[in-house]
Amino acid sequence: MGARSSRLKYHEWDSDKLAQTSGLSRDEIDRLHIDFMKAAGSDGVLDMQEFIRFYTHLPGIEMQDTHNINQQARRIFRAFDRDNTNTLSFDEFLNVIVLINQTMPRYDRVEYLIRQNNIDKLKKNKGLISAEYGHQILRRLNDYYGSSAGKEHFYWKEIDTQNRGYVTEEEFMNYISNHADFNRK
């Protein structure tokens, strides 16, 4: 949920945990990577239109209404284009795959993504979410769930009631899992 250069790359992810949270086997993830790279072309990333075409061919997605798929794909693209390049890398796309997996509880999927993308945790603040990272997560969740833009500041104040500039992962996840704005499929 930070800039591309500061996140773990696909080959650095815990492949067993990724398989568990995505609902895909390691082989299916490898195949998805190959298909993604074919769809992405020489630049290795998907723009919005490439993403929509790729997204609509994911297993289970093609059974949805075309109009809803396109709207959903656009919303998801904006939510996971974390560095605002108007493209998605495969690493960003993996976040999409995890979040749309309905075979695992939403709490577990969101918690995994938060931990996976928490560069502060990798550096020094194990188990803590900084205000900056918390705002990024909340902004992405707003985008994903279609909530009002800019509410991340309000949410953060409700989570960090002591104004410490950080919260524990547990405090953060408890807030998200109990807030109506984030409890929709």
TrEMBL record:
Pfam families in alphabetical order: EF-hand_8
Ranges where the EF-hand domain occurs: 68-103
GO molecular function, one term: calcium ion binding
Keywords attached to this entry: Calcium
Keyword NAD assigned: no
Top-level taxon: Eukaryota
Bilayer-crossing regions: none
InterPro entries registered for this protein in UniProt: EF-hand-dom_pair, EF_Hand_1_Ca_BS, EF_hand_dom
Protein's recorded name: EF-hand domain-containing protein
Species whose genome carries this gene: Adineta steineri
